[in-house]
Write a structure and sequence with these properties.
globular, alpha/beta, 7 strands, 5 helices, single chain
Length: about 200
């Protein structure tokens, strides 16, 4: 088990994200960094009948290029909640454990959070509870540049970078046991494996 780790905030994060949490005594979620586009901070991947698809929580960026992630507000004019929930139902309604977990996730997504950071944190706490993972979570209070903190995963877990993390393969809807798809949101594992999900992290 490692000591402290540093993670970016993330929307329905991939399994790799939880693999770091489960190995750590204390987890710090970065809230002082400048927001980064096209990252897991507001993006996740579901497995559909057409393959992996990414879904994004739209946010207000204004005319500024550098905005602290703690100040990033969600844009509800895009009807993203309905799009994401419909995609979840379409992708996972036939998954063995979908009915056990969907309602809780749906409730949080529909809660109308103003800030992305708050939405992500409440989803993370709910997912950890579903997975039966105990974790000590805190927000950062100051920004530490890359390379100055041990066990810093803020930029290592990134959809734009090839991951060295090798997940254990499990049953997935639409793959029929072939061509396992990695890099998906933790909910893919949760909906398919239920209480056994923790054994695949």
């Amino acid at each position: 088990m490692t000591g402290k780790i540093l993670l970016s905030t993330a929307y329905l994060p991939p399994i790799e994200y939880f693999s770091q949490i489960i190995k750590s005594k204390e987890v710090f979620i970065e809230k002082e960094e400048n927001y980064i586009k096209q990252s897991y901070r507001n993006r996740c991947y579901f497995l559909s009948s057409d393959g992996p698809r990414f879904f994004t929580v739209p946010v207000f960026m204004g005319s500024f290029h550098k905005i602290p992630v703690k100040e990033i507000r969600i844009d509800y004019s895009k009807r993203w909640q309905q799009i994401h929930l419909r995609a979840l139902i379409s992708s996972y309604k036939s998954a063995p454990y979908f009915i056990y977990y969907f309602e809780n996730i749906e409730k949080i997504i529909l809660s109308g959070y103003e800030y992305l950071l708050d939405l992500n944190m409440d989803l993370l706490k709910a997912l950890l509870k579903m997975l039966n993972i105990e974790a000590k979570l805190s927000y950062t209070s100051v920004f530490k540049p890359i390379g100055t903190s041990e066990n810093d995963f803020r930029h290592k877990i990134n959809p734009k970078k090839e991951s060295i993390y090798i997940p254990k393969q499990y049953f997935q809807v639409f793959t029929n046991g072939k061509d396992f798809i990695s890099g998906l949101s933790i909910i893919d594992l949760l909906f398919n494996m239920g209480p056994e999900a923790i054994d695949y992290i």
